[in-house]
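A.,

Following up on our hallway conversation. Structure tokens first:
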């Protein structure tokens, strides 16, 4: 069953920020963002990171992501406990605090949009795509918690993709898998476009320059200007956070093995 789409952006600040991504999120996906905001508030955090996105997906029980996570043995209380151990609670925040996505969480959402474009004909973004984005990003605390609960990230990804295939097979007519005409296009691009392509590859949104160029042509650089701006801003920060996230993951693994 396809998750219902909703164009409304009313609600907490996080929904206003999500609206800037120029994507069509399902009602379940939007609710998961709201739940992520609530979870961050419970920890007195003034931001929404990948760990809060994971908690939001676990609280949105109507989404495909919840079903896959539950089948994988990833439960809400266990994830909360892991996050409490890794980060803990901060000092209380004012009720009016506007919590926005961290740079890494923004990358997760960007990857989710990419997954939505690849796996759905109407290019909506559901909870399944958010989970795929979290896994593809792979270095945030959310992904580290899943891995350290004993569930391989690739296993979760495979289950999500299988759920998508099962849904599509029951809601969409079969499509030709082989095309006779060539899909290869040769073109010359300017320095600004090449910088955008290299940035997408560097942060892991796409794996190669060709893949990045194809994605940009598909979605349009101008239509995703705000996303690309966020990508450029996070390249430097991701390099710094990568080492920190790996260290945290190792600490959690050692703690659970003792």
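Then the amino acids I'd put at each of the 258 positions:
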């Amino acid at each position: 069953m396809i998750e219902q789409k909703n164009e409304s952006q009313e609600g907490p600040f996080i929904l206003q920020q999500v609206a800037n991504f120029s994507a069509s999120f399902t009602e379940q996906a939007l609710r998961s963002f709201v739940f992520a905001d609530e979870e961050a508030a419970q920890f007195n955090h003034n931001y929404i990171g990948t760990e809060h996105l994971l908690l939001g997906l676990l609280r949105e029980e109507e989404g495909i992501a919840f079903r896959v996570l539950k089948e994988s043995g990833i439960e809400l209380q266990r994830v909360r406990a892991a996050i409490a151990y890794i980060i803990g609670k901060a000092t209380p925040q004012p009720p009016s605090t506007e919590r926005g996505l961290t740079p890494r969480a923004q990358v997760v959402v960007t990857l989710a949009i990419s997954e939505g474009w690849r796996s759905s004909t109407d290019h909506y973004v559901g909870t399944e795509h958010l989970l795929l984005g979290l896994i593809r990003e792979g270095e945030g605390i959310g992904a580290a918690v899943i891995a350290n609960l004993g569930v391989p990230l690739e296993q979760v990804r495979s289950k999500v993709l299988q759920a998508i295939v099962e849904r599509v097979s029951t809601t969409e007519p079969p499509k030709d898998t082989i095309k006779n005409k060539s899909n290869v296009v040769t073109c010359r691009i300017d320095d600004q476009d090449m910088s955008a392509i290299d940035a997408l590859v560097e942060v892991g949104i796409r794996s190669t320059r060709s893949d990045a160029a194809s994605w940009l042509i598909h979605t349009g650089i101008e239509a995703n200007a705000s996303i690309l701006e966020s990508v450029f801003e996070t390249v430097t920060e991701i390099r710094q956070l990568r080492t920190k996230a790996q260290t945290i993951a190792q600490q959690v693994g050692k703690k659970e093995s003792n």
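DSSP finds twelve helices and four strands in the chain. Curious whether your intuition agrees with the design.

B.
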